[in-house]
Amino acid sequence: MTKTAAKARTAASRRPQANPRLFHAARARAIKQEICAVGRKLWLRHYVDGNGGNISCRIGPNEVLCTPTMLSKYDLTPAGLCLVDLDGNQLAGAGRRTSEILLHLEIYKAAPEVKAVVHCHPPHATAHSIARSVPDYLALPEFEVFIGHVPIAPYATPGTSEFARTVVPFVKHHNTALLANHGIVTWADTATHAEWYAEVLETYCWTMMLARQLGLPLTYFNALDVEGLMEIKHRYGLPDHRLAPPAERTCTCGPAIAPNAPAALPAPGQLSGPEFALLVQSVAEAVLEKLRGR
Ligand SMILES: [Zn+2]
């Protein structure tokens, strides 16, 4: 048995036994409705086609509601959804669970605070995933606050465990990732919010493509602008790898905090005022450095 498989088996043995009855619990009812509403939004916005895309919500320590395979996201019904445990075993539901659930489950295992995951193929963001280019950032406030820098998870065959694990390094300090030559995945506290991140990323990618077509120089945020946006982000408690402690910053695709920043910092939500000011200053310096290099 490989080290990873042994670790997964130990973690699985420590989990509470899954409860299939949660599928019919009153609190699951509202979440099922929300998943169906999110599915229709994705389809109406052209973020999924055919039977593509999938949505899930964690409703217990070892229970996750998810969409079935081979069904358009426009046609989802609460009764047709599935309930699985964190190992992907189906516990309840008429349809067969999506094979992509493994990707969602890796995210839940890596970040217990995450309660919903959305995977879809919005055209402009997916174009970036094919070009293996992260969307340029520091240009629009909403994108910077809700998402920030987007990592690209390497390509692996969809539906496999290998594919599912590609996103793990990014889960803690991001809420959105491009999946190379495939699409995007977003995670949040609710399915509605995870769908918002898909909208914010897709609209941003589209807008930046249009802005470039104007053939004029683009203007990016200065350090003071970034400072204001980072304060909003901090207030909302949104993850950003630029605010992560260096040891946890697995994503190397964005501007790093300046080398003179403290070596070990607490999580963003636990920073004192001066610590946060110092972080903001470090980020601003790194950003300015990047802009000078444009
Ligand atoms: Zn897909």
Report on this model:
This protein has 2 domains: 3-213, Class II aldolase/adducin N-terminal domain (L-fuculose-1-phosphate Aldolase); 223-292, no CATH class. It contains 9 helices and 8 strands. The longest helix has 23 residues, at 191-213. By secondary structure, it is an alpha+beta fold. The chain has an 8-stranded mixed β-sheet with strand order 4-3-2-1-5-8-7-6, sandwiched between helices. It has helices at 3-14, 26-44, 101-110, 123-131, 141-146, 161-165, 191-213, 223-236, 273-292, and strands at 54-60, 63-66, 82-84, 90-92, 116-120, 152-153, 176-179, 183-188. The chain binds zinc ion. Zinc ion binds at residues 52, 100, 119, 121, 158, 182-183.
Note the run of SSEs as H and E. Answer: HHEEEEHEHHEHEEHHH
Q: Output the structural class.
A: alpha+beta
Q: For this structure, what is the CATH class of the largest domain?
A: Alpha Beta
Mean pLDDT: 86
Distance between the termini: 48 Å
Bound molecule kinds, no repeats:
zinc ion
